[in-house]
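Appendix B. Extra example for self-study. Work through it before the problem class; the solution is given directly after the inputs so you can check yourself.
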Amino acid sequence: MQMHFGVEDMIEHVPMEDKRKSAAALDEARLRQQAIGVKLRQMFDEVVNEPVPDEFLDILRKAEPPAGGR
Amino acid sequence: MEEEKQVGRSAPDPVRDPVFKRELVTLIPHLRAFARTLTGDATAADDLAQDAMMKAWDARASFQLGTNMKAWTFMILRNQFYSEKRRSWRQSQLDQEAAERTLVAVDDPEAPVALDELRLGLAMLPAEQREALILVGAGGFAYEEAADICGCAVGTVKSRVSRARRALQAILEAGNYDRDGGAAGDAMRAILADAERLSSLR
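Solution. Structure tokens for the complete assembly:
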């Protein structure tokens, strides 16, 4: 997963203390993004895992040309 | 329908049709999920997913077996959604408030709070950022596939996803979504805790 954070760009130009702080902030940001990612997939998968209503297969069946017809 | 659409309708193919149909059936759950994120309403989403499924079926002759049918059907569904939206909401532009109202519609009243917050946060994103994030972040599509589905450049998808991620995080951290004066700022914490629990279960 690719992520872009402004924090990364700052790292080159800051003294040691701040650098450590930035790295920690970056880790924290990554963790948060991962958590959001997990929840996004969960939200999507909840629907994917729902049973498909019969309607779907019914209309698909009706659309099919009758076997051996014409 | 004002006229019977014959153009683009595929002639029956006894060899290929069953293969196509089998694959199409496996995609129904994914079409439903994508439709749900676009419409935010379970009933409207199923109508949309059914329309897209039938459009795909009618156009099956133009699909090359062995290529990415999921991306192809998602593209059909997305086009269908936006063309219907243009038709029905031509005069009343979809405002943010309406987007929030519909996206909030959750089937399961016992859905965890963190998911609710996520839905609210998503509703606040511009539509093109939201769909890019859903496709890449939840639908499992590569940037290139998402670009095909949305009909835009790969770089555009990348920047939309990246902006969506940052915006969503900021929204969740600030708690600056509308939630009946509920505890703002807890959303990110709830999501972190929930994600941690989920990944330790796996």
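Self-check: The helical segments of chain A are 6-10, 16-48, 54-63. If your reasoning did not lead you there, revisit section 3.
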